[in-house]
Q: What sequence folds into this?
C-alpha cells in the first residue's frame, strides 16, 4: 500500500493590519530638518502608519491573524503553532503567548523569533521545518513591529524610515512543498551598524545593583545600504540555482520594504524587470518584520498572485542578517 506524504508546507491564507493614523513626510518636516522631496527621492517613502500611545504589536498581530484565520476557513483551535517575528514585543519575555491567548488558539504552542527585518522569512523557514518533520500541521506565522516607538523623533537619519504594521500567514501541511529553496545568513561582525541596544543605570550604589533600559535605533544608513545591495543578489541567485531554476522563471520579487533604491538596485542586478517587483513602502515605510507579509497580503488581495507563480522573498537587516526563500504559490 502506498502511503501519501502530507508533510509539504503550503501557504493557505494571508492577513494584515495597519494602524489608522498616517504620518506624511510633510508632517515629519515640521519636527526635524527634512523635506518630502529628500525622503521620497532617497527612500521612496511618502507616508507611514503609526500606532497610538498604548497600542503595541499584540493588537495589530491579533487583527492580522484573525483575517488570515478567517480566510483559511479554519478555527483558532486548529492551529498547532504560532511563530511571531518581532523586534518590538510588548513584553520582553515575548508576545506570542499573549497573542495565542487573545486568538483563543488554545492548542497552539507559541514563541517569538527576534531577527529584525529578516524575522519573517526566518520564521517562515522555521515553520516549514516543523511541517516537513511532521511535528505540526497548521502554523500561524506573524511578522509584527512598531519601530516608530523606538526611533528618536529628533534624529532625521532614522525617524523618517519606520512605520508600524503586522502581517500573518497560515501554513498547512499538504502533499506539495511550496518551498523550492531557502537560506539564512548572518554576519555578526556588522552588529554595530544597526542596533537597538540596552543600556544600564545604577539603581543601588551601595551594592552596585543596576537595571537596564533600551536606547533608540542607531543606524549607519550607508553601510546598511551597501550590505543589502551586495549580499542580497548573491543569496537570491544561489537560491534560484539550488532550486534548478533560472531567473526568467521568477514571477515576483518581494524584498523587505526598507528603501526603494535598495529594491530597485537588487532587481536590476538580478536582471528582473520592474513589473515583477512587489513594492508598497511608499504608503507604509519600513515596517520591519511586518513588511513582507503586509506586501504579500496586499498582492494576494489584489489577486495578482497566480497558482504556480514563483516568488522570491528576502529579508535583510540588523545583525546583519539576510534570508531568502524561493516559493511556489
Ligand atoms: N533629511 C534631510 N537630510 C538628511 C536626512 C533627512 N531625513 N537624513 C540625513 N540627511 C543628510 C545627512 O545629514 C547628510 O548631510 P551632510 O552631507 O551635510 O552630512 C546627507 O543628508 C547625506 O546623508 P547620508 O546618511 O549619507 O544619506 P544617504 O544617501 O545614505 O541616505 C538613507 C540615507 C536613506 C538612510 C540610506 O542610507 C538608506 O536607506 N540606507 C538603508 C537603511 C535601511 O534600509 N535601514 C533599515 C534596515 S532594516 C532593519 O533591520 C531595521
A:
Amino acid at each position: 500500500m502506498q502511503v501519501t506524504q502530507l508533510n509539504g508546507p503550503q501557504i493557505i491564507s494571508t492577513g494584515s493590519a495597519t494602524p489608522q493614523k498616517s504620518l506624511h513626510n510633510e508632517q515629519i518636516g515640521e519636527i526635524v530638518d527634512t523635506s518630502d522631496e529628500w525622503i521620497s527621492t532617497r527612500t521612496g517613502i511618502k507616508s507611514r502608519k503609526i500606532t497610538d500611545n498604548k497600542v503595541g504589536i499584540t493588537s495589530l498581530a491579533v487583527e492580522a491573524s484573525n483575517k488570515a484565520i478567517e480566510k483559511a476557513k479554519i478555527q483558532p483551535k486548529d492551529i498547532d503553532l504560532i511563530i511571531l517575528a518581532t523586534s518590538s514585543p510588548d513584553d520582553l519575555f515575548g508576545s506570542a503567548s499573549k497573542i495565542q491567548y487573545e486568538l483563543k488558539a488554545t492548542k497552539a504552542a507559541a514563541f517569538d523569533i527576534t531577527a529584525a527585518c529578516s524575522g519573517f522569512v526566518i520564521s517562515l523557514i522555521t515553520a516549514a521545518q516543523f511541517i516537513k518533520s511532521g511535528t505540526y500541521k497548521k502554523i500561524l506565522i506573524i511578522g509584527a513591529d512598531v519601530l516608530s516607538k523606538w526611533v528618536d523623533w529628533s534624529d532625521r537619519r532614522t525617524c523618517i524610515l519606520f512605520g508600524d504594521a503586522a502581517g500573518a500567514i497560515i501554513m498547512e501541511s499538504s502533499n506539495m512543498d511550496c518551498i523550492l529553496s531557502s537560506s539564512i545568513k548572518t554576519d555578526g561582525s556588522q552588529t554595530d551598524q544597526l542596533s537597538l541596544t540596552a543600556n544600564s543605570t545604577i539603581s543601588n550604589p551601595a551594592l552596585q545593583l543596576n537595571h537596564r533600559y533600551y536606547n533608540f535605533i542607531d543606524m549607519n544608513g550607508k553601510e546598511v545600504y551597501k550590505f543589502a545591495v551586495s549580499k542580497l543578489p548573491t543569496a537570491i541567485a544561489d537560491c534560484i540555482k539550488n532550486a534548478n531554476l533560472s531567473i526568467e522563471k521568477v514571477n515576483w520579487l518581494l524584498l523587505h520594504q526598507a528603501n526603494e533604491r535598495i529594491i530597485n538596485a537588487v532587481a536590476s542586478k538580478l536582471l528582473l524587470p520592474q513589473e515583477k517587483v512587489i513594492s508598497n513602502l511608499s504608503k507604509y515605510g519600513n515596517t520591519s518584520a511586518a513588511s513582507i507579509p503586509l506586501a504579500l497580503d496586499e498582492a494576494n488581495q489584489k489577486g495578482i498572485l497566480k497558482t504556480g507563480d514563483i516568488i522570491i522573498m528576502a529579508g535583510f537587516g540588523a545583525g546583519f542578517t539576510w534570508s531568502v526563500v524561493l516559493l511556489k504559490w
About this structure: Residues 221-242 form the longest helix (22 residues). Residues 181-188+218-328 form a domain with the Peroxisomal Thiolase; Chain A, domain 1 fold (CATH 3.40.47.10). The chain has a mean pLDDT of 96.
